[in-house]
Amino acid sequence: MRKTKFVNGEFYHIYNRGVDKRPVFMDEYDFARFLQGMDEFNSIRPIGSIFENSFRKNKPLSNQVAKLVDIVCFCLNKNHYHLVLRQRVKNGISEFMKKVGTGFAQYFNFKNKRSGTLFQGPFKAKHINSNDYLLHVSAYVNLNNKVHQINTSDYFKSSWNEYVLNNKGLCSFKDVILKQFESQNAYKLFAESSLKDIIERKKLSKELENLLLD
After folding, report:
1. Is residue 203 part of a domain?
2. Least C-beta-crowded within 10 Å: which of 40, 138, 139, 206?
3. Strand partners, 71
């Protein structure tokens, strides 16, 4: 039984990693396939598989489909992912993550001639219960590669450029964040400042952990 109950209109930080911390995004195709799943499976209407959906005639544009969730921001690192989602319909997040996770695992296992579980159990979820929390978690997710000191685009994909360069993408609900700042550059400065605090707290936590182990 999941402790976190999903409520329509509320925001949640969703994350998971590969089983045994294994890589789940091995190349650009894997990143693209997961993002495609986030786009196409975000639909109340069943689409079958992405392969089946590719043959469907007169597919509605993704922005015209009745969606399960609003995507606020995301980051895909080599062995884990972070998403911030807002639930639109009852069981929307659970259904969305089931479709995305199952579809990607099937693709990944077929591609790599493997079987079994790909992700480390059910996805994790934390309720974002304040606007301040929402702003800071958006910075953490958008810049998550820097949290882990990943500086090459070969190892991550995030919604950062959708926020600061106005690139088009998956984040249909990014304005809930951006409307609170005078400009995209103001958000950029806030996120980078917030990230410094996050990294510093992470270092202090690690140092304390090492002291306790000693």
Report:
1. no
2. 206
3. 85
Q: Is residue 61 part of a domain?
A: yes
Residue 19: which of 104, 109, 79 has the closest Cα? Answer: 79
Task: Find out whether 180 and 52 touch, Cβ atoms under 8 Å.
Answer: no
Buried b (16+ CB within 10 A) or exposed e, 14-43: bbbbbeeeeebbeeeebbebbbbbbbbbbb
| Residue 74 tokens, joined | 């995301």
**CATH code assigned at 115:** 3.30.70.1290
**77: in domain:** yes
Q: What is the pTM assigned to this prediction?
A: 0.88
In 3D space, the residue among 74, 142, 79 whose CA is nearest the CA of residue 108 turns out to be: 79
Cβ atoms of 130 and 34 closer than 8 Å: no
> Angle at CA 171, nearest 5°, toward 10 and 32?
125
Higher pLDDT, 2 or 113: 113
Range of the domain at 53: 11-129+155-176
* Cα 55 to chain centroid, rounded: 27
Q: Quote the number of domains for the chain.
A: 1
